[in-house]
Amino acid sequence: MGILNNVAVQWLIRRIPELAGIVVTLVTFYNSIPPQYQAVIVSVITGKGGGLTVSALIGFALWVYAQWTSYQATVKPQVVQKIGKSTVATPLRETDAVTQQRVEQVVPTPRKRTLIDVLTGR
Known about the structure:
Layout: H1 7-32, H2 35-45, H3 52-75, E1 78-83, E2 86-91, H4 97-105, H5 115-120
Antiparallel strand pairs: 1-2
């Protein structure tokens, strides 16, 4: 399953619990508020909320921007260094040829078996 080793796919998989939590929270909140407030929320979502739609779109746009920057930071090439007990990831600059050569020469440590590996018998 080579596609599961893709960094972008792993980022999407990590977003599934986050999105599920947001949906469950919103549905629970919506069901717990009085009907008149539910009508206001429905009017905002359908675009009939007047000025309320703009403020709702600003929050949504900020959330989309946060997800985009998280994705960009995830797929950016990085150099990972072990310093003491912690690891530090620094962005790999394209002009840093010496560092890039050292990164290419490093042999990756074998990864741990995942649940997919166990189920497929690898």
